[in-house]
TrEMBL record:
Transmembrane domains' residue ranges: 79-98, 118-144, 156-175, 181-204, 211-229, 235-253, 260-281
Entry keyword set: Hydrolase, Membrane, Protease, Transmembrane, Transmembrane helix
Peptidase S54 rhomboid domain sequence ranges: 115-249
Name listed for the protein in its UniProt record: Rhomboid family intramembrane serine protease
Organism for this UniProt entry: Sanguibacter biliveldensis
GO CC term, one of those recorded: membrane
UniProt-annotated location(s): Membrane
Length: 284
């Protein structure tokens, strides 16, 4: 009695399956590791395909391209700048449509002591005159993307928020507790924008770029704050100084210690601002 013979090599032939999905047959193999990869686990490469594991490993080990000040180089939209602009515009609409929205979030030295979050929230409010929010958002749209790209998102957010707080701290330090200035509300992103002005001036000098034009813009805006009534020149000055200090720390930090210097400078400025305003309130 004879039995059918097995063709030579047939026992060694197996159907290739995807290692991540063993129930899926795949005759396409990764160009890097040679393993089968189903359509869900394969990525089109310049030549052939690669499996998602090899692509992830290549991304993990690939060198990170950075800007002149050490931030990861990004090619997308400046999402932090656009988010701040969107929040300010949304808040402006709420100011016009919701009763009490401005009053609950505006800042004054008196309300700041009782409700310290107003040091931040007032920077997202503006007067009902459209030119106020328009000018601030235009300045942010011009300066913000440059600094966000150069410094990175974390340092840019810190710069913006601490400059806003620094502007309001200056209002507290320069206001007279026995006068109406202690109870006068202030709104606007001007302190934060002036902080960006101060930072970009320092950064441009650090990078050897012509900064006289920016100096003229800063000077003109400061003069406007002193000449035009109902403008908080104190907030402008406080934001400018805060932004310039942080900008200098970020720009002149040694390359090998940029992260450490950035964290220490941010925390130090925050502590200094909080300490200064607490000391002032203790004296009133």
């Amino acid at each position: 009695m004879s039995t059918p013979s097995t063709p030579p090599g047939a026992a060694d032939q197996t159907v290739p399956t995807c290692p991540r999905h063993p129930d899926r047959v795949s005759y396409v193999r990764c160009q890097r590791c040679g393993r089968p990869a189903c359509p869900e686990c394969s990525v089109q490469a310049s030549v052939g395909v690669q499996c998602v594991d090899c692509v992830r490993e290549a991304q993990r080990t690939a060198p990170v391209h950075r800007t002149a000040l050490g931030a990861p180089l990004r090619t997308g939209r400046p999402v932090v700048t656009y988010t701040i602009i969107a929040l300010c515009l949304i808040s402006y609409v709420l100011q016009l449509s919701v009763d009490g929205w401005t009053g609950r979030l505006a800042f004054s030295p008196f309300t700041g002591e009782l409700e310290p979050w107003r040091f931040v929230t007032a920077a997202f409010l503006h007067s009902t005159q459209i030119f106020h929010v328009a000018l601030n958002m235009y300045a942010l749209w011009i300066v913000g993307p440059y600094l966000e790209n150069l410094l990175g998102r974390a340092r840019f957010i810190s710069l913006y928020l601490l400059s806003a707080i620094g502007g309001h701290v200056a209002v507290v330090l320069l206001a007279d507790p026995l006068s109406a200035s202690w109870f006068t509300g202030t709104v606007g992103a001007s302190g934060a924008v002036f902080g960006l002005f101060g930072a970009i001036f320092v950064v441009m000098r650090r990078m050897g770029q012509e900064a006289r034009g920016m100096l003229v813009i800063i000077g003109l805006n400061l003069v406007v704050g002193f000449v035009v009534p109902n403008i908080s020149w104190q907030g402008h000055l406080g934001g400018l100084v805060t932004g310039a200090v942080l900008g200098a720390a970020y720009a002149f930090a040694p390359r090998e210690r940029r992260t450490l210097v950035g964290i220490v400078a941010t925390v130090a400025v925050a502590v200094l601002l909080v300490g200064a305003v607490l000391l002032r309130y203790s004296q009133v």
